[in-house]
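Dear colleagues,

As part of the handover before I leave the project, I'm documenting each prediction I ran so the next person doesn't have to rerun anything. This entry is a single chain, and its sequence is reproduced below.
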Amino acid sequence: MKRTAEMALANLEMRTAKLEEAEYQEWVDMDFKTTSRSFESGSQKDLKATIFQLNPGYDFDLPLSGKGMKSIVTSLFRPLKRIIEVLEKSGMSFKVVFKIRPTLIKKSGSEEVTLTFENFFLCIYSSPFKVWQDPNDVEANFDYKARRFYATAPPSLNHSLEWLNKKQDWKITYNPIRGTLNSNIPLLLKASFAKALSKHLKDYQENRKLISKAIHEKIASWSEDFVKGYSVEKFDMLVEEYAEDNYRRPHEDEDWHEYGGRESAVEHVWENVVLADKKVSGLEGDPKRPVFLFLIDFDDTKNTAALVRWDFTSLSSRDVKWGTLEKMRSLYNKS
């Protein structure tokens, strides 16, 4: 139902009458400011407790009852409460931070009381109020020193809500006579702001999902290209190891009689060795940690093969298993 001027006037008269019963003039003439101390709040629960425990800094009887004062503080807290409730529903980790405990100020001659937060800001660990990224333009590269992938993407949108993440003074003023709220940040007082903030956070979370998916796809593509360029020549140490173990007679140094020496034996292995298969694995379990598998057929006549498993992001050496081609093929298909 639309509120008429008559209804608004009746409401104002009712409020005035209520406070007149509580010695209205004494309320107007009153002057007080709560004491403050160093304080930080890590949750909405702590913040509520801090605000609701506000008391005047000196001892006298307020013209309003404790219940009346609590009602005023509740009204002052409402704009901030709406924001924090949206953050809680979003599931994001956050903390409300202010270096000085909130102060409640009432100046003599004024009907209004002001709640002030100094150096206040919302610490959101996933940065939804800063520049987002464009999921359509992601690049993934590998840092060989750190043994990890890193991704870059140009900024997509720069939202005006970044001010929520900056230290500033927040002031909310309430007039209990007229039932009106004012603030140095007018946006706080709009009920629609909570809905806009909720949508903003949902859009941000969707953006993070798209970015994560794009990064994983780029890592998979990078890994596939890496494997394609990997040939059997990359396994020269393995070839020499195979020649050493299979063609060298006991107690001989360089004179490998059967093949005319060490070099000839290694050359003989190179004539037969084949990179039978290769692939990228492991991305389903951890999209940022590819595992490369190489199936190497060393000698058809001896039915000897090696399966090389290489965890690309690990500093450890490659894991090599030896056996028949049939057995190594089976392990390869299962990996």
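Helices lie at 5-21, 24-29, 44-52, 66-90, 191-228, 236-247, 262-272, 325-334. The chain has two domains: 5-221, 230-334.

All the best with the project,
I.
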